[in-house]
Task: structure prediction
Amino acid sequence: MLIMELFEAINKRRSIRNYSEEPVEWDKVVKILESAIRAPSSGNVQNWRFVIVTDKKLRSKLAEASLQQYWMENAPIHIIVCSDNFEIKKLYGERGEKLYSIQNCAAAIQNMLLTATALGLGSCWVGAFEDEAVARILGISGDVTIQAIITIGYTHEKPMPPMHLTLEDVCYFEKYKNKIKDMDTVLWNFNVVGKAVKTTKNLGLKITEKIKKQLKSNKR
Result:
């Protein structure tokens, strides 16, 4: 089975909303689920739970419950990611229930999306849905919250890459909002600065020293 490199999968991943009728091989679904349970979780609590839906009628109901996103019903596989909050709430209280449970499931979801891409499948992370309606459709009750619906299937769609902020836009040093001069060099944006330098340990040390010096000069 051909599996692409990690960074290629990261760059190629897109939110796909147009699926073909080609069925998805079950071994690929299993690999996607296996990648999900390898994600990190708070205290290794592994609160994620997965409901796999293939039935077309159920998929139609889920699309209706997802604020009428009818494109969803064409995806042959729906994986509903849930959080069983009993253990995580017992261990971490309110913070566990309201934050860690979401973070853990999000880490599992990202693994799933990248694995689907690496396996040549399209996927989409759906977060807009009526919780009670989805719970009713799937028989979910108790201390379980629905985190997302992941649609998976083959696609001929090739969306254009979305706009991404640059590292310079989102990176600060030592303190929030603290930027330094010559960000291109520090962030190894050699296309901008016109340098072709190998990423060696020595270079990393030199750049670390450069950051420290510029931070000191910022304080003056």
Notes: The two ends are 58 Å apart (CA to CA).
